[in-house]
Specification:
This protein is α/β, with parallel strands linked by helices. The chain is built from 6 helices and 14 strands. The structure holds zinc ion (ZN) (3 copies).
Length: 253
């Protein structure tokens, strides 16, 4: 099972519009350190799933038939904005998402080829060669993480969240992901609205999963800046995701 990160940034991406911090200034010149909003491609056997659609060129990257389905974590714009372009096209694309009566703008009203299926908490589905289980997360909109299994390899994709409901934590501890991709928007102690994990919280959570590879995503410019000054701050077994990077999750041989 392969997970390719197309966008690993928080809502505004990196560089953040109008920000003159060192990270954003560098990212305007050095495109390799840019972060687009949240989006990843999961490939397992012949199955290809897009997880969130924060990048704006989904229509160009994935012509009709290139994807089996899209898994939407929630309807904040930075996770679905790439879907808006597809609505005027032809064909059909399955989109799995949480129950959210509001959705995002007029996505429900004019879905075009997008065929929405709303998943309940802990609902399990077989999609092509993978099975997915939708797990609830605590965020400012109804939000699901996705626990994805293929040939014994288990990958959890948890964005966005500020805390895990106890039932989700219990599920994950039973399920034991080999790879756990987790929202980490802020550096430790950030005085931001508490709608996302910061690094202290992700490190605390990682202690529940000593066997898992922890991969941090949905990263804000302030976390990049904080880590640039502290290159050894991440504990063993934890790393940042980067746009364009591909993870291989093979489970235990
Ligand atoms: Zn987000
Ligand atoms: Zn900045
Ligand atoms: Zn969000």
């Amino acid at each position: 099972m392969r997970l390719s990160f197309l966008g690993t940034g928080a809502a505004g991406g990196v560089p953040l519009w109008g920000c003159e911090c060192a990270i954003c200034t560098r990212a305007r010149v050095d495109t390799s350190v840019r972060r687009q909003p949240n989006c990843a491609l999961l490939e397992a056997g012949k199955t290809r799933l897009l997880i969130d659609a924060g990048v704006m060129d989904v229509a160009e990257r994935f012509p009709p038939g290139a994807l089996d389905a899209v898994l939407v974590t929630h309807f904040h714009a930075d996770h679905v904005q790439g879907l808006f372009h597809l609505r005027w096209g032809k064909g059909a694309l399955d989109v799995y998402a949480p129950h959210d009566s509001e959705g995002c703008a007029d996505l429900y009203k004019s879905p075009g080829p997008l065929k929405f299926t709303h998943l309940s908490k802990f609902e399990k589905r077989e999609l092509g060669e993978v099975s997915i289980t939708a797990v609830p997360l605590v965020h400012s909109k109804p939000t699901l993480g996705y626990c994805i299994e293929h040939e014994g390899a288990r990958l959890a994709y948890l964005s966005d969240c500020r805390e895990l409901p106890p039932a989700t934590l219990e599920f994950l501890q039973r399920w034991q992901p080999h790879t756990l991709c987790l929202d980490c928007t802020f550096p430790p102690g950030a005085d931001q609205p508490r709608n996302h994990f910061d690094l202290l919280e992700t490190v605390a959570l990682a202690q529940h999963f000593p066997e898992s590879e922890m991969v941090l995503m949905h990263i804000g410019h302030k976390l990049d800046a904080w880590l640039q000054d502290r290159p050894d701050a991440l504990p063993a077994g934890m790393k940042l995701a980067y746009d364009g990077e591909t993870l291989i999750c093979i489970g235990v041989p």
